[in-house]
Amino acid sequence: MTTTSGSAKWQGGIKDGKGAISTKSGALNDYPYGFSSRFEGKPGSNPEELIGAAHAACFTMALSLILGEAKLIAEQMETKADVTLEKQGDGFAITSVHLALNAKVPGADNAKFQELADKAKAGCPVSKLLNTKITLDATLQ
């Protein structure tokens, strides 16, 4: 078992306030986030892009494991996770995550590749954490 951490600081109100995100590893160290970077496309980060990066990384690692169990090794895999945040009632909710994978896996046929990618989508720990619709487009080159 492993435990790691991320942290956030915030000062001010929701629209005029400013925040900073940090990770235990130091990959992010007081990286700015706020209302404008979350809802208005301004520079800075936001929780949804961090969830997307985490989900893409987790899924891709899970698929690497599953491919290895099938005696396949990826030459290259690239995953993008689009995280959708929508207004619902008085608040907001993450309503979906769409994973888009492009992979080069020597010796893999498309049917088996799709089966293994679906298994990784369902089994990766971040997929299990998220209580939302998760879709996948997996392209084998």
From TrEMBL:
SUPFAM superfamilies: OsmC-like (SSF82784)
An example Gene Ontology biological process: response to oxidative stress
GO molecular function terms noted in the UniProt entry: peroxidase activity
Name listed for the protein in its UniProt record: OsmC family protein
